[in-house]
Amino acid sequence: MSTSRDHANPDPNTCLGVFGLSLYTTERDLREVFSRYGPLTGVNVVYDQRTGRSRGFAFVYFERIDDSKEAMEHANGMELDGRRIRVDYSITKRAHTPTPGIYMGRPTHSGGGGGGGAGRRRDSYYDRGYDRGYDRYEEYDYRYRYLIFISVGTVDLLEKLKS
Protein backbone atom coordinates (compact mmCIF):
# COMPACT_ATOMS: atom_id res chain seq x y z
CA MET A 1 0.00 0.00 0.00
CA SER A 2 1.30 3.45 -0.81
CA THR A 3 1.83 6.13 1.77
CA SER A 4 1.39 9.89 1.51
CA ARG A 5 5.17 10.19 1.11
CA ASP A 6 4.93 7.98 -2.01
CA HIS A 7 2.29 10.30 -3.47
CA ALA A 8 4.34 13.45 -2.80
CA ASN A 9 7.63 12.12 -4.19
CA PRO A 10 7.12 9.07 -6.38
CA ASP A 11 10.23 7.26 -7.54
CA PRO A 12 11.30 7.96 -11.14
CA ASN A 13 9.98 5.31 -13.50
CA THR A 14 9.03 4.86 -17.14
CA CYS A 15 5.35 5.71 -16.60
CA LEU A 16 4.26 9.34 -16.40
CA GLY A 17 0.84 10.53 -15.29
CA VAL A 18 -0.41 13.53 -17.26
CA PHE A 19 -3.12 15.53 -15.48
CA GLY A 20 -5.36 18.50 -16.27
CA LEU A 21 -5.96 17.51 -19.88
CA SER A 22 -8.66 18.98 -22.04
CA LEU A 23 -11.57 16.64 -22.73
CA TYR A 24 -10.56 16.85 -26.38
CA THR A 25 -6.89 15.83 -26.02
CA THR A 26 -6.32 12.49 -27.74
CA GLU A 27 -3.72 9.77 -27.44
CA ARG A 28 -2.35 10.93 -30.79
CA ASP A 29 -1.84 14.46 -29.40
CA LEU A 30 0.01 13.10 -26.38
CA ARG A 31 2.12 10.77 -28.51
CA GLU A 32 3.11 13.74 -30.68
CA VAL A 33 4.20 15.83 -27.65
CA PHE A 34 5.94 13.15 -25.59
CA SER A 35 7.70 11.25 -28.40
CA ARG A 36 10.03 14.29 -28.68
CA TYR A 37 11.74 13.09 -25.50
CA GLY A 38 12.30 9.47 -26.49
CA PRO A 39 10.63 6.28 -27.74
CA LEU A 40 7.25 5.45 -26.21
CA THR A 41 5.81 2.03 -25.43
CA GLY A 42 2.26 3.32 -25.02
CA VAL A 43 -0.15 6.16 -24.31
CA ASN A 44 -3.48 5.69 -22.50
CA VAL A 45 -6.07 8.42 -22.04
CA VAL A 46 -8.46 7.43 -19.25
CA TYR A 47 -12.15 7.56 -20.24
CA ASP A 48 -15.29 7.45 -18.15
CA GLN A 49 -16.83 4.05 -18.81
CA ARG A 50 -20.43 5.26 -18.60
CA THR A 51 -20.19 8.43 -20.70
CA GLY A 52 -17.18 7.64 -22.89
CA ARG A 53 -15.70 11.09 -22.20
CA SER A 54 -12.11 11.71 -21.16
CA ARG A 55 -11.59 12.01 -17.41
CA GLY A 56 -8.84 14.58 -18.01
CA PHE A 57 -5.78 12.48 -17.35
CA ALA A 58 -3.59 9.95 -19.13
CA PHE A 59 -0.55 7.74 -18.77
CA VAL A 60 2.47 7.90 -21.06
CA TYR A 61 4.89 4.95 -21.06
CA PHE A 62 8.54 5.40 -22.09
CA GLU A 63 11.10 2.74 -22.94
CA ARG A 64 13.80 4.38 -20.75
CA ILE A 65 13.68 6.17 -17.39
CA ASP A 66 16.08 8.88 -18.61
CA ASP A 67 13.58 9.82 -21.33
CA SER A 68 10.70 9.96 -18.85
CA LYS A 69 12.80 12.22 -16.56
CA GLU A 70 13.47 14.63 -19.42
CA ALA A 71 9.81 14.60 -20.49
CA MET A 72 8.64 15.34 -16.96
CA GLU A 73 11.06 18.26 -16.60
CA HIS A 74 10.10 19.84 -19.93
CA ALA A 75 6.39 19.03 -20.28
CA ASN A 76 5.30 19.75 -16.70
CA GLY A 77 3.41 23.06 -16.79
CA MET A 78 3.23 23.28 -20.59
CA GLU A 79 -0.01 24.31 -22.28
CA LEU A 80 -1.77 21.66 -24.35
CA ASP A 81 -5.15 22.24 -26.03
CA GLY A 82 -5.65 25.41 -23.98
CA ARG A 83 -4.98 23.71 -20.61
CA ARG A 84 -1.86 23.85 -18.42
CA ILE A 85 -0.92 20.23 -17.77
CA ARG A 86 0.80 18.63 -14.79
CA VAL A 87 3.19 15.75 -15.42
CA ASP A 88 4.44 13.46 -12.67
CA TYR A 89 5.76 9.95 -12.23
CA SER A 90 3.01 7.40 -11.83
CA ILE A 91 2.67 5.92 -8.35
CA THR A 92 1.22 2.67 -9.70
CA LYS A 93 3.45 -0.05 -11.05
CA ARG A 94 0.89 -1.46 -13.50
CA ALA A 95 -2.50 -0.61 -14.97
CA HIS A 96 -5.48 -1.12 -12.67
CA THR A 97 -7.85 -4.00 -13.31
CA PRO A 98 -10.93 -2.64 -15.11
CA THR A 99 -14.12 -2.33 -13.09
CA PRO A 100 -17.76 -2.17 -14.19
CA GLY A 101 -18.14 1.40 -12.90
CA ILE A 102 -20.68 0.49 -10.22
CA TYR A 103 -20.35 -1.04 -6.77
CA MET A 104 -20.61 -4.81 -7.07
CA GLY A 105 -20.04 -5.74 -3.41
CA ARG A 106 -22.51 -7.00 -0.87
CA PRO A 107 -25.07 -4.51 0.43
CA THR A 108 -24.32 -3.10 3.87
CA HIS A 109 -26.73 -3.52 6.77
CA SER A 110 -26.69 0.22 7.40
CA GLY A 111 -28.38 0.89 4.07
CA GLY A 112 -25.36 2.97 3.03
CA GLY A 113 -25.13 6.69 2.84
CA GLY A 114 -24.21 7.56 6.46
CA GLY A 115 -26.29 9.46 9.02
CA GLY A 116 -28.54 7.74 11.55
CA GLY A 117 -32.28 7.74 11.21
CA ALA A 118 -34.10 8.51 14.49
CA GLY A 119 -33.34 5.09 15.93
CA ARG A 120 -34.85 3.16 13.01
CA ARG A 121 -32.58 0.44 11.73
CA ARG A 122 -32.38 0.45 7.95
CA ASP A 123 -31.98 -2.96 6.43
CA SER A 124 -31.96 -3.09 2.66
CA TYR A 125 -33.67 -6.51 2.68
CA TYR A 126 -36.79 -5.17 4.40
CA ASP A 127 -36.71 -1.70 2.83
CA ARG A 128 -37.07 -3.14 -0.65
CA GLY A 129 -40.09 -5.31 0.09
CA TYR A 130 -38.36 -8.66 -0.42
CA ASP A 131 -40.00 -9.92 2.74
CA ARG A 132 -43.54 -9.48 1.34
CA GLY A 133 -43.49 -12.68 -0.66
CA TYR A 134 -43.69 -11.17 -4.14
CA ASP A 135 -41.51 -9.28 -6.52
CA ARG A 136 -43.01 -6.06 -7.90
CA TYR A 137 -41.95 -7.02 -11.44
CA GLU A 138 -43.81 -10.32 -11.54
CA GLU A 139 -46.80 -10.96 -13.84
CA TYR A 140 -49.01 -9.74 -10.98
CA ASP A 141 -48.50 -6.11 -12.08
CA TYR A 142 -49.54 -6.73 -15.66
CA ARG A 143 -52.38 -9.22 -15.25
CA TYR A 144 -55.12 -6.61 -14.84
CA ARG A 145 -54.04 -4.75 -17.94
CA TYR A 146 -54.68 -7.90 -20.01
CA LEU A 147 -58.00 -8.66 -18.26
CA ILE A 148 -59.31 -5.17 -19.07
CA PHE A 149 -58.27 -5.60 -22.69
CA ILE A 150 -59.98 -8.98 -22.90
CA SER A 151 -63.18 -7.77 -21.22
CA VAL A 152 -63.43 -4.73 -23.50
CA GLY A 153 -62.77 -6.98 -26.48
CA THR A 154 -65.43 -9.41 -25.27
CA VAL A 155 -68.01 -6.62 -24.89
CA ASP A 156 -67.30 -5.49 -28.47
CA LEU A 157 -67.59 -9.06 -29.70
CA LEU A 158 -70.91 -9.58 -27.87
CA GLU A 159 -72.25 -6.33 -29.37
CA LYS A 160 -71.39 -7.60 -32.85
CA LEU A 161 -72.98 -10.98 -32.20
CA LYS A 162 -76.22 -9.35 -31.02
CA SER A 163 -76.65 -7.32 -34.17
TrEMBL record:
Annotated keywords: RNA-binding
Gene3D superfamilies: 3.30.70.330
GO BP, sorted A to Z: mRNA processing; RNA splicing
Region of interest: Disordered: 98-122
GO cellular component annotations of the record: nucleus
SMART domains for the chain: RRM
Protein name as catalogued: Transformer 2 alpha homolog
Classification of source organism: Eukaryota, Metazoa, Chordata, Craniata, Vertebrata
PROSITE patterns documented for this protein: RRM (PS50102)
Tree of life domain: Eukaryota
Organism field: Strix occidentalis caurina (northern spotted owl)
Residue stretches making up the RRM domain: 14-92
GO MF, one annotated term: RNA binding
PANTHER family membership: TRANSFORMER-2 SEX-DETERMINING PROTEIN-RELATED
